[in-house]
Each structure stands twice: as C-alpha cells, then as structure tokens.
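Regression test case RT-17, inverse folding.

Input:
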C-alpha cells in the first residue's frame, strides 16, 4: 500500500492531474462511450443514469485504489442494481503497463459486449480516468472500429487530455495475434509496429475474444 501511495503522489504532480475534491469528471468519447474518473458516491450513479443514460459501468480499479480514496464501493454497486445499471470490474494495476497490457483483452471484451447490447451508454473508469480507462477505450476503437492506433489515440486525447500507455495497447494487440506463425518477439519490433493492422490481422486478433467471458 505504501508503494501505491508514493506512486499516486507522484502522479498528482504530473501534467495530467486528478483532483479528487472536485468530484467525478468525465468525457463523452462516442455516442455510446464515456471515459471518466471514479464515481465517489451513490449520487454519482444517479447523475450518470439521469443525465447520460448510462446502462453499464466498467470499473478498472483494484481494491487498493478504492481503499486509498475511501470509496464505499458496496453502496455504489447497490445503487447500480437499484437503477438497473450493469456494474462490471476488470481490475488492472495502476502505473503498471504490463498489468494493463495483460488486462486489456478482457476489459475490451466487456466494453464491446456492453456497447453491442445497446441498452445505453457505457461508463469506463479507473481512478482518475487518465490512464487505464482511456487505454481501454482506445484499444476498443482500434480493435473494433476499423481505425488505426494513432487515430484512435489522438481522437480520444483531443477530447480528454490524458496520458494512456500506447505501448501497452500495442503489446496487447501483439498478444492477441497469437496464431500468427510469422510473429517475431515483441521486443524486436520497431516502435511503430502494431499501430496499424490489416483486415486479416484484425480478424486474427478478434478470434481470442470469442472465448473470453463478457463480464
């Protein structure tokens, strides 16, 4: 926990700052996708339902994130149930690109399922909505919306100034192409590799999603 506290304090001094005292903040990325910071109280869930027609919440926080900010997650989940909002968790370790890389496929799978259901908007959040959550949204746009990684990255960050780890998304894309017999070790690839993928590579990358649990 002490390690986490130190990392969080460092993050507060970065150009992209999280101001917990200002409450929940978020950005509409597409007509079905919102990226934001953590809901702090049940009233935030009321707001998301009433003002944004949110039907799904995808929470990327670990338990220690929630404990650090003293969030009563049980009351938030209960309010989600009361309002018929589907609350999903796909925890990834904050400030850890490897954890993000390994967790992206399942998180994006849940996001794609929720958007495909079409019952309302999906609210994707981590703690600040500056790292893990935008990375999941960018990976979704890259993998499922037929746009390249740089376009997806620039589109999101132009709407919500943030610093998601692009290398983690590239690494996860590489990992998904597990059936490609010509794949070289990721460390040997140039920096721009897997920023754009062809249709056959996109199809190959989507195959593992078929065996993933949706939520």
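Golden output:
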């Amino acid at each position: 926990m002490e390690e986490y506290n130190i990392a969080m304090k460092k993050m507060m001094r970065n150009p992209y700052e999280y101001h917990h005292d200002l409450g929940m903040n978020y950005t509409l990325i597409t007509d079905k996708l919102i990226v934001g910071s953590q809901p702090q109280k049940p009233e935030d869930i009321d707001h998301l339902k009433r003002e944004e027609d949110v039907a799904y919440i995808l929470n990327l926080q670990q338990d220690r994130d929630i404990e650090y900010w003293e969030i009563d997650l049980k009351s938030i989940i209960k309010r989600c149930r009361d309002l018929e909002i589907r609350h999903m968790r796909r925890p990834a370790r904050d400030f850890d690109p490897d954890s993000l890389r390994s967790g992206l496929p399942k998180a994006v799978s849940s996001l794609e399922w929720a958007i495909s259901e079409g019952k309302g908007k999906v609210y994707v959040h981590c703690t600040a909505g500056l790292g893990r959550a935008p990375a999941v949204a960018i990976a979704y746009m890259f993998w499922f919306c037929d746009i390249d990684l740089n376009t997806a990255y620039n589109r999101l960050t132009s709407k919500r100034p943030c610093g998601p780890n692009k290398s983690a998304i590239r690494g996860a894309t590489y990992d998904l192409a597990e059936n490609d017999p010509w794949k070289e070790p990721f460390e040997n690839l140039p920096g721009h590799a897997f920023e754009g993928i062809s249709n056959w590579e996109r199809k190959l990358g989507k195959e593992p999603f078929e065996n993933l649990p949706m939520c």
